[in-house]
């Protein structure tokens, strides 16, 4: 799935893509993971916002925020990753959504992918996993 | 200058021993790679966050082990979260014990869970002490360099 140009918009306040920097939303209930992933992605030159569960991620989009890339944890309270992903896709969000999970069973990952992910990685994110995503996104912007 | 080199060497030796003795794995190095002039205490901050946040999980697990009947599903969920957090800071021995705990949990083995949880708490506390000492040394090295 390619990132459509309509996702590369922003009012500056909700931190959608500004200039040529990729905007990212990290959705994870674990504050340690949010901290680490935020640092990793900022070091890679991205603009990063965080949300602590799927409902917050959906609410951000309902309020008009848009991101080039969403990293979505699978298991979260309030609203989990698969449900949040389905809702975002139903809302017409075409951003790249990448699942991030500590579950490594194929069946879990496939079920998460079926919710509408572009890709799914096992935690934690590393620069090696992020670089191909940046290349794909910058190729489409 | 001699004092600076001495402290620097102590830091390096302690760091190496944490890896050699199996307390830490490569994920800790990933954290170190994210530390820079803009975030000079990033590793220590993340470790502090881990110990602050995981106290809640440990309490949840303790309570879940105390309840009768034991809800092994809930217990496994809590331990899955705790294992994930421990993995994210490179807490290798803690992670290994968490994996063992989950084996007992899936088998519905309450005694195995209880015994392993005691081991987890020991490794968790031991790593905390070692990392506190390590970060104190790192701080001393920083002060010695800027003196």
UniProtKB/TrEMBL annotation, chain A:
Alphabetized Pfam families for the sequence: Response_reg
Organism domain of life: Eukaryota
Keywords tagged on the record: Phosphoprotein
Response regulatory domain mapped to chain residues: 23-138
Record GO biological process: phosphorelay signal transduction system
Modified residues (4-aspartylphosphate): 73
Protein name (Swiss-Prot/TrEMBL): Response_reg domain-containing protein
UniProtKB/TrEMBL annotation, chain B:
Domain of life: Eukaryota
Gene3D superfamilies attached to this UniProt entry: HPT domain
Keywords: Cytokinin signaling pathway, Phosphoprotein, Two-component regulatory system
Predominant localisation class: cytoplasm
Compartment list: Cytoplasm, Cytosol; Nucleus
Domain HPt positions: 39-134
PROSITE patterns: HPT
GO molecular function: histidine phosphotransfer kinase activity; protein histidine kinase binding
Record PTM Phosphohistidine, positions in chain: 80
Listed GO CC annotations: cytosol; nucleus
One GO BP annotation of this record: phosphorelay signal transduction system
Pfam families xrefs: Hpt
Domain note: Histidine-containing phosphotransfer domain (HPt) contains an active histidine that mediates the phosphotransfer.
Functional description taken from the UniProt entry: Functions as a two-component phosphorelay mediators between cytokinin sensor histidine kinases and response regulators (B-type ARRs). Plays an important role in propagating cytokinin signal transduction.
Name of protein: Histidine-containing phosphotransfer protein
């Amino acid at each position: 799935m390619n990132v459509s140009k309509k996702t590369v918009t922003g009012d500056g306040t909700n931190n959608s893509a500004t200039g040529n920097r990729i905007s990212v939303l990290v959705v994870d209930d674990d504050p340690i993971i949010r901290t680490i992933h935020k640092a990793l992605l900022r070091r890679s030159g991205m603009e990063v916002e965080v949300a602590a569960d799927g409902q917050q991620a959906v609410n951000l989009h309902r309020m008009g925020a848009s991101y080039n890339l969403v990293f979505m944890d699978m298991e979260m309270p309030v609203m989990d990753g698969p449900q949040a992903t389905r809702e975002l896709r139903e809302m017409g969000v075409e951003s790249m959504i990448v699942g991030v999970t500590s579950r490594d069973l194929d069946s879990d990952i496939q079920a998460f992918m079926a919710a509408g992910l572009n890709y799914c990685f096992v935690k934690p994110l590393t620069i090696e996993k992020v670089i191909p995503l940046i290349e794909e996104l910058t190729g489409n912007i | 200058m001699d004092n600076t080199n001495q402290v620097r060497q102590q830091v390096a030796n302690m760091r190496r021993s944490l890896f050699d003795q199996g307390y830490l794995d490569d994920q800790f190095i990933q954290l170190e790679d994210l530390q820079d002039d803009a975030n000079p205490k990033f590793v220590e901050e993340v470790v502090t966050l881990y110990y602050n946040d995981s106290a809640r999980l440990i309490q949840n697990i303790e309570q879940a082990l105390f309840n009768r009947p034991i809800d092994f599903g809930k217990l496994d969920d809590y331990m899955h979260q705790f294992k994930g957090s421990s993995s994210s800071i490179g807490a290798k021995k803690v992670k290994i014990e968490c994996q063992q705990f989950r084996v007992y949990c899936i088998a519905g083995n309450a005694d195995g869970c209880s015994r392993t949880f005691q081991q987890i708490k020991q490794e968790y506390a031991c790593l905390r002490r070692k990392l506190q000492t390590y970060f104190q040394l790192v701080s001393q090295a920083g002060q010695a360099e800027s003196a």
